[in-house]
Amino acid sequence: MAARWPSHLLIVRHGESAGNVARKAANAAGEEQIALAGRDVDVPLSARGEEQADALGRWFAKGPAESRPQVLLSSPYVRAQQTAERFRAQGGMDRDVPICLDERLREKEFGVLDGLTHSGIAVRQPDQAEFRRLLGKFYHRPPGGESWCDVIFRLRSVLDMISLHYAEKRVMIVAHQVVVLCFRYILESMTEADILAVDSAGDVANCAITEYRIDRSQGSDGKLVLDRYNVTAPMEAEGAAVTAEPDAKAHAA
């Protein structure tokens, strides 16, 4: 029977962004609004984020060729694209491999909560704060935004595409914190309680690696099994800062 799954699936959160930095500053100052101009999709990497993406690429370049990705998929958000581009430019994979942008890998959409801090939501959107308390972060969908379930729905189709086109390949995805967690939910057949426990244990670090490898002994098609999660060794080895700030609106995720 033909193989269905990639041999390796690497899921990486983008490097530190200007949004991460702005969120931290807004919370420290007790502000209701995160100081970001323009759209979330256009938020770039910070200087530290650029260093992290470069470190990730150099770390893979120094490793065995058979561990480097053959396929690179990215969220279309600027911070994810820049991470993917810098990773490739530093030799993390062959430089002639295209970066495939997929809008299904985008950040969770926050709708009316976009750009608000935790205190800003309580003051400006008290009804949504109460709905989130009642429904929980997994199921709450703010007006104009998404729940975690909505993100999971679109990621299931990404996995269908990967299984159809990239069997036996080494595939890397560059995306966002909630996307990393939602992939874990799908691939490990988790419950709501399971994935929220992972989330509450700590944020996904910028440019950290989550990796699945195929286990051919499990079922006729094999199964992708978690090999490592939230690994920051590339930044540590290359002397780049390790950061794990939530995304600009991840408190409302």
Task: Describe the model.
The relative contact order is 0.23. Helices cover 40% and strands 14% of the residues. With 253 residues, it is an alpha/beta fold. The chain starts with 7 loop residues before the first strand and ends in a 15-residue tail after the last helix. A six-stranded mixed sheet has the order 3-2-4-1-5-6, sandwiched between helices.
Give the CATH class.
Answer: Alpha Beta
Helix content: 40-55%
**Number of helical stretches of at least 4 residues:** 9
Write out the strand line-up for the largest beta sheet, numbering strands in chain order: 3-2-4-1-5-6
Give me the secondary-structure category. Answer: alpha/beta
Q: What CATH architecture label applies? A: 3-Layer(aba) Sandwich
Give the mean pLDDT.
93
- Tell me the major beta sheet: 6 strands, mixed
By DSSP, the count of extended strands is: 6
Fold-level CATH name:
Rossmann fold
The percentage of residues in β strands lies in 5-15%
How many structural domains does the protein architecture include?
A: 1
**CATH homologous superfamily title:** Phosphoglycerate mutase-like
Outline of the structure:
The protein has 253 residues and is α/β, with parallel strands linked by helices.
Core attributes:
253 residues; alpha/beta; Rossmann fold; six-stranded mixed sheet
What's the SSE blueprint?
Layout: E1 8-13, H1 18-29, H2 47-62, E2 71-74, H3 78-89, E3 99-101, H4 118-124, H5 126-135, H6 148-165, E4 170-175, H7 177-187, H8 192-201, E5 209-215, E6 223-231, H9 233-238
Parallel strand pairs: 1-4, 2-3, 2-4
Antiparallel strand pairs: 1-5, 5-6
